[in-house]
Amino acid sequence: MDILNFISWIKGGRQVTSVDPTKTLLPVGLKDDRRDDGYLAGAISVADLATSLGGDRLVAGTKEVVLTDNAGDATLTFSPGDAVIQTTGLGADLFIRTLGGDDIFIESGDDITLRGDQGTFDAEAEGGDINIFAGDGSDGNTNDAGSGGDIRIEAGDAGNSVSGSQGEGGFILIQAGYTTATGLPGGNINLEPGNSTDNISGRVNVNGVFQWSFDTSNASLRFPAVTLATLPSAASTPGARAMIADSNVPAPGNFGAIAATGGSAIVPVFSDGVNWLIG
Asked: How far is it, in rounded angstroms, from Cα 43 to Cα 61?
C-alpha cells in the first residue's frame, strides 16, 4: 500500500468509525533494508495488531489519565490477578483523593492490608509509618465552625445461621512492635484524648458489659457503680477492682471485709481470688 494513496483515501473521506477486528486491515510499514526507503508496505488486522502490542500497559508520562464518570461513578476494572498502582523512583508520593469532599471507599472480598515499607537493609532506616488522620473542621467568620472528623475502627458482626452454628464477631487487636534488644521495652501504645485551649481534656472510654472510663480532665478512674451480683466470680478475676452500689456497709472502717449486698452504700471492692473484698 503506497502511503500517498493512503493519504488520498483519508482526504477523500474513505474512513470508517467501526471495524471488524478480524477482517479490518491497517496499513503498516515492514522493516526491509533491501528497499531504498527501508520499509515495505503491508497490512495487519486490528485483532492481530492488538495481540502484538507489548502488554496491557497504560503510560501517562506527565499527562493525566482521566476516567470520565457515568452518572457520578467512574469505574476502573482489572482482570483476575494482582493489580498494582505504584509510583516510580524515590520521593514520588501517591495520592488518592476526591474533590469536593466526596467519600473514598476501599472494599475487598477478602482482606485489606495497610503496610508501611520495610527499612532498607544495613541503612539503619526506620520502617514506614502508617498515619490515619481525620479531617479538620471548617473555619468560619459569620458561620459556625465545623467539627473535626471522626476515626472509627469497627470489627465485623458475626454471621447469623438459621440451622447451623452462629459465627463469632470479629476482634480488634492493637499491638505495638517487638524488639530483640535486651533491656529495652517494646513499642508503646498511647491513647491520648484531645485537649482544649483552657487545658480541659477529653475522655478515654473503654465500654463493655462492665463499663469504665478514664476521665483525663481530673485524672480520676471512673468505675460505674453496679450491683455485686453483676460482677464476675472473684475466683476467676484475682486482682480485679470494681465499684458496687448495693453494699450493706459503708467503706470507712470496713477495709478488707467481704462485700455483701442488702444496702445502698457505694463502695470500692477488689478480688483476692476467693471473694470480693471492700477496699
From this structure: 30
- The answer to whether residue 111 is domain-embedded is no
Give the separation between CA 105 and CA 176, rounded to whole angstroms: 27
Rounded Cα–Cα distance for residues 227 and 249 (Å): 14
pLDDT at site 221: 74
Q: How far apart are the first and last CA of the chain?
A: 100
Element (H, E) at 50: helix 46-52
Query: Taking the C-alpha atoms of 68, 72, 78 and 79 in order, what is their torsion angle to the nearest 10 degrees?
Result: -110
Q: How many domains in the chain?
A: 2
Closest CA to 259 of 216, 225, 215, 210: 225
Give CA–CA dist 38/28, Å, rounded: 13
pLDDT in tens, 223-246: 888 999 999 999 999 999 999 999
- The C-alpha cell at 92 is 514520588
Domain assignment of residue 228, given as a range: 201-279
In a domain, 182, yes or no: no
Residue after which a domain boundary falls, among 61, 76, 99: 61
Condensed to tens digits (0 to 9), the pLDDT of residues 97-144 reads 877 667 888 888 888 888 888 887 887 778 888 899 888 998 988 889
In a domain? residue 175: no
Written as nine digits, the cell of 11 is: 482526504
pLDDT digits (tens, 9 = 90+) for 25-64: 887 888 888 877 788 878 888 888 878 876 666 666 666 7
109 in a structural domain: no
In this prediction the pTM is 0.60
